[in-house]
Amino acid sequence: MQTIFLECGSVRLVPFSPADIKLVQDLHSDPFGNRCNELSTNCAPMDAGELVRTALQNQNDLGFAKWKAVSEDGRFLGWAGLHRSPKRLKSA
Predict the structure, then answer these.
(1) Total-model pTM
(2) Cα angle value 40/36/87 (rounded, 5°)
(3) Where are the beta strands (DSSP E) in the chain?
(4) Cβ of 25: how many Cβ atoms within 10 Å?
(5) What gap in Å lies between CA 6 and CA 11, rounded to an integer?
(6) Cα–Cα distance between 52 and 66 in angstroms, integer?
């Protein structure tokens, strides 16, 4: 059984595996899947291998990461998750 990090309705966030690089490549080769929006700060082309490798490393090192979003039947929907901010917040 695969670990589910978050489940909301019919969408689940589960860990990536190295085999998922192709799924991310396909998502970001689609103009709709790779569009920028007003919330984006980095609209550079996506390196799918780097995203998956970093997610796996962060999960191992930090206990949180970006995860694969799947439907109840396991269909790939995209990705979502958490990342560590490069800036440290100053305490008040």
Answers:
(1) 0.74
(2) 20
(3) 6-8, 11-14, 66-71, 76-81
(4) 15
(5) 8
(6) 8
Give residue-wise pLDDT tens across range 49-83.
Answer: 999 999 999 988 988 899 999 999 999 999 998 87
d(CA 1, CA 86) in angstroms, rounded, equals: 34
- Closest listed residue to residue 48, CA positions, set 67, 69, 21, 27: 21
pLDDT at 90: 64
Residue 23 β-bridge partners: none
Q: How far apart are CA 46 and CA 25, in angstroms?
A: 8
Cβ atoms of residues 23 and 17 within 8 Å:
no
Amino acid at the residue 59: Q
Q: How far apart are CA 70 and CA 24, in angstroms?
A: 12
- Residue tagged 């008040």 (tokens): 92
> Radius of gyration of the chain from Cα atoms?
14
